[in-house]
Amino acid sequence: MKQLTAGLLGSTGAVGQRYVAMLDDHPFIRLETLMGGESAGKMYGEAARWLSPTEIPRAAARMKVRSTSPENAKGCDLVFSALPSEAAERVEPRFAKAGFNVITEASARRMDEHVPLIIPEVNPSHLSLLDVQRKRTGWRGSIVATPNCTVTGLTMVMKPLLGRFKLRKVVVTSMQAISGAGFPGVPSLLITDNVIPYIKNEEEKVADESRKILGVAAGGSVSPANLELAISCNRVPVVDGHLETLYAEFSGAVTPAAATKALTRFRGAPQELHLPTAPEHPIIVRTEHDRPQPRLDRFAGSVPGMSVVVGRVRNGIGRNSIQLTLLSHNTIRGGAGTAILTAELMAAQGRLGR
Amino acid sequence: MKQLTAGLLGSTGAVGQRYVAMLDDHPFIRLETLMGGESAGKMYGEAARWLSPTEIPRAAARMKVRSTSPENAKGCDLVFSALPSEAAERVEPRFAKAGFNVITEASARRMDEHVPLIIPEVNPSHLSLLDVQRKRTGWRGSIVATPNCTVTGLTMVMKPLLGRFKLRKVVVTSMQAISGAGFPGVPSLLITDNVIPYIKNEEEKVADESRKILGVAAGGSVSPANLELAISCNRVPVVDGHLETLYAEFSGAVTPAAATKALTRFRGAPQELHLPTAPEHPIIVRTEHDRPQPRLDRFAGSVPGMSVVVGRVRNGIGRNSIQLTLLSHNTIRGGAGTAILTAELMAAQGRLGR
Amino acid sequence: MKQLTAGLLGSTGAVGQRYVAMLDDHPFIRLETLMGGESAGKMYGEAARWLSPTEIPRAAARMKVRSTSPENAKGCDLVFSALPSEAAERVEPRFAKAGFNVITEASARRMDEHVPLIIPEVNPSHLSLLDVQRKRTGWRGSIVATPNCTVTGLTMVMKPLLGRFKLRKVVVTSMQAISGAGFPGVPSLLITDNVIPYIKNEEEKVADESRKILGVAAGGSVSPANLELAISCNRVPVVDGHLETLYAEFSGAVTPAAATKALTRFRGAPQELHLPTAPEHPIIVRTEHDRPQPRLDRFAGSVPGMSVVVGRVRNGIGRNSIQLTLLSHNTIRGGAGTAILTAELMAAQGRLGR
Amino acid sequence: MKQLTAGLLGSTGAVGQRYVAMLDDHPFIRLETLMGGESAGKMYGEAARWLSPTEIPRAAARMKVRSTSPENAKGCDLVFSALPSEAAERVEPRFAKAGFNVITEASARRMDEHVPLIIPEVNPSHLSLLDVQRKRTGWRGSIVATPNCTVTGLTMVMKPLLGRFKLRKVVVTSMQAISGAGFPGVPSLLITDNVIPYIKNEEEKVADESRKILGVAAGGSVSPANLELAISCNRVPVVDGHLETLYAEFSGAVTPAAATKALTRFRGAPQELHLPTAPEHPIIVRTEHDRPQPRLDRFAGSVPGMSVVVGRVRNGIGRNSIQLTLLSHNTIRGGAGTAILTAELMAAQGRLGR
């Protein structure tokens, strides 16, 4: 693959740091421009309050943070955005207009009609929306979004079930890690010895984004999947890794064994294309009674943190339903990892670079 | 109410300690005999590794622990059992045979045909099984069971919904506190920064016990409620308080407002009889978005820990379903509190004492 | 005691809420005016994000929050201040000038020459500074400060050792609860599965304030105690309760038994005056190997949370030193409780009211 | 280095699993025999309840666990022991007698006169005790011990201070991780939202073992270092990583800068010999105010978890003392890592193999 250079918006925050860590030794994407509002001018190593147990990459630590402006990204083949939602809404279109292909984690434009909302294993064909996007906006560049951290694992699990068995209704309860709220995020005084049974706007996002991702892109927009969803989102005192219980009803009969087979065999475009950030198995099904667990399974997969781990696949109510539990690393598979994988997919499709 | 004297089986363990704490200043039940296998002969204050932030009651601390034998309970009007399941299975019938009315938290006999499984607000009429129980077993005493800690809150919430709206199907995910596993219980190495998505036999208990409690007692046995249940039980790093998300489908239309009204108005026999351990409101519905929370709501109610707290009552899928979140204190309402309330109910019905 | 009415600055924050909770049924101090910057005009029940497991007091919930201004405190006999340090520095002198006796938890003026820094059991005589304070400032009212939450327990333990045995050198390591940082305070992402070995300015405060409190007030200022201190402050994932290990060297020989006796017998003015918030025993010494523990001992004492719990009193190095571990509830004894006790002491001394 | 084959006693427990993980791709030590009492006959993958987030090594998972007997270790050049103390006391001498060189983490024989207690960077010369050991016991093999998990980091930090500045007196407070108690170890009900200020026998071990390690081996025994120690050991709710605060007094003047230099420059035999498990820097000194932290720093070093991280080097009381905070990974540097490094050192010295 030919070399690509990337810029990073919101580089010093908790989300941005994941990109810096994951791209440190990427085979063909090189982070060349680190941008950040208030830190502009400082060395990245000083500007970022590094939150990860791994060392800050040396090369990045010595780079100077630049202000958030398209001129500063000159020469970049793509721009990752780790901006919070409001800043994203304001800033990203300026970069798209200036000719940059922006891949964003922000929620701001995920539901925009012409913005593809991508999980590379699930709906790579939605990137076709970009042609209409450019036409309607007049942008020389583009905006591609990646989903909410709770949606990613859930949708990856629903995809093979949907295709194979006519998934009809889903009841989901999430137990989400504190890192999902960013930094400073959840005050320790609220979450220690506690569970918070509510995350603002999260349940709506999970419902809407899931239906869009599992929908059909045609004629420049997406027809959302016809799927009934009931969702309860909770915050638990866990550092990383979103756990979700799933009760699924189908139009016909399903067995746990058949569902397990469909989940285990699931592969997508990233696996076929052997993209560097693609895990060998997008979904790993464990058979022990008490897995997946956030602390033990969040780094599962041949690319750590990129596989969704499923366990407890079992009967639901009657012959038409099953239950299972799933886990995905919220800031890797549910964040930077899926964005980087999307960049790799776009590169493979010739959509990046000049 | 006339004074009753009580014995306590398994008094030194984590479960037993709750009885000692709750009965310390009870208006008419006096703990007279503390029994415990290995601690017999020691002072209770030395034998019990006191696990609660409140001081060990002085009177109890100075009582001598006796060995587990019906002779040692002589004179007691009732015997509470805080024994683990296997010991309970072996020991409790000996006490029943010797003429004691045993009220037990153990799971061993909850599903026995002639053993009433009681939540005083929900199914006081099931105590009528005792007549058949005595006939079949030849016991002079009796055994009454109280439910699993996850069942209690759930069933109290389902009861008013069932009566009023024809509840048909329920999908439940629990997030259970570590104290639910007793002592030593869950190793800290397993639950710190983690969730364990499985609790042995718990989901079966929740399904079976709920149906029995909500069923109809007639002719010496219980016809279980016809209710479809899908249950996922999880352990979270919280000290006390079981949180449960509930998705409920009904045969007809239901609104969150109507469900809220039914839950709020729910009262049972303990409230009518003004029993001392009965909370004024068995169910408290909170309207804030982010409640109930274990740490903030576990001691809710006019009798601390005896009210179930419900929140987030909202639409489910379509017009025939709702969702909500509920919390109950697992060792009070889900343990000693319900057992003591059962004793109070039996006393009020003239079933205890001589 | 005659009735006193009080105002509260910073009433809606985490610190302010403690005053509202503790004064709810005070025998002679009635909270009449709740002040708060941004919440002015709202009902207190809406304005305060209530952080405690106990219910918000009903009377307070229905009071209207007023803006922070001396006119709004008219008629109050004293004003408690739960303001953060910067606001305190600006606001409190305006109240003192307007004639109010301000009792403040803020660090802003604790080390001011004419501000008494009071723990009622330790240095009640320092209130004599108020005469000089009024003279120098021209205030009709006054400002009295209470110490840092880590200082309070430590100083109470040092006091009887100092008096009895000539304490010379102290090495302290604190393990401080998250509530000590206020709200939102410590991000959960920083403290989960972690200890933070640093709290900004805390070690300096502990050293300076301890020496002032244990010093001698004479001639309008305090000569600090001649005491060598080495202090390490750490934040641990505990909700409430500061734990401290203490190594103490003396000028002469000391035994653990003698130190235990001195600690156990310690009493102060609040005990002699039978003030309502005074615990019967300011210091409780436990003899079990593994106490005090924050979760089990933080509410110790006849007034919950007002006693300091000491344990593990044992030999140090050689005959002239001992070691021990102490615990105090940081927001009660280390916060609102000591401030309220100070108000009670001032009332008993005739320093409050008209 | 020539290839060595190793046996492992207590292979299925929490401690044993660390050896299996760390030796998975060792350049010259190959685990050939996994022993375990109750699991004998099972595959290791089934017998071990794998507690680590990393996958169980495939080769080990398929090995059959053998019973604990010298015959089963036939052909092994050394035997690591991860046995609990009592079993170690009974079992290890049988292996030494049968000709095996046993390297043990167990506390049982650490203080035995002829057993070297080794930290390879600190006291490699103590291995000379082995000649006397063989003579006195008549063993063909030998027993070498590695220290308690709290001692290792502490002693590594004291070593350069002792050599350079005449360390005289040390006051230490530890905040120890739950994994230090093994499995099942500390019940979650005891440590959640809590600190336990006591660990059985730990303070005695820290004092005795530190003095032995820093002592001088001559004439077949060790003269312990003349060092005054006051130690307080605490358990905190952290998964891995022991944090310790240290106040140190010297016979002469010391500055933080000079101490930092001595710590930073410290190297030992493992570094000179370029042993594979030797970190480039045995001690890493961080200059940020708020480091080291267990979650961020426990895997520090070129060999993850093998470097001790020091921070907050600062003045103590007067010119002759300093304070600092240190962290070491208790199951790597404080456990399996130091044992493996000891094996590497013994191999380099020609003490292993035939």
Average pLDDT taken over every residue of chain A: 96
Instruction: Just give the CATH class of the largest domain in chain A.
Output: Alpha Beta
- Tally of individual helices of chain A: 12
Unreliably modeled segments of chain A: none
Structural class of chain A: alpha/beta
For this structure, the quaternary state is homotetramer
How does the major sheet of chain A shape up? 6 strands, mixed
- Count of domains of chain A: 2
Q: Any idea what the shape of chain A is?
A: globular
Strand order of the largest sheet of chain A: 9-6-10-13-12-11
What can you tell me about this protein's structure?
The structure is a homotetramer of 354-residue chains. Chain A has twelve helices and 13 strands. In chain A, the strands form three sheets. Chain A has a six-stranded mixed β-sheet. The first copy, chain A, has a five-stranded parallel β-sheet with strand order 2-1-3-4-5, sandwiched between helices. In chain A, strands 7-8 form a two-stranded antiparallel ribbon. With 354 residues, chain A is of the alpha/beta class. The longest helix of chain A has 17 residues, at 149-165. In chain A, helix 1 (14-22) packs across helix 12 (332-348), helix 6 crosses helix 8 (202-213) and helix 6 crosses helix 12. Chain A folds into two domains: 4-148 and 336-348, Rossmann fold (3-Layer(aba) Sandwich); 149-329, Dihydrodipicolinate Reductase, domain 2. The interface between A and D is medium-sized, with 12 and 12 residues.
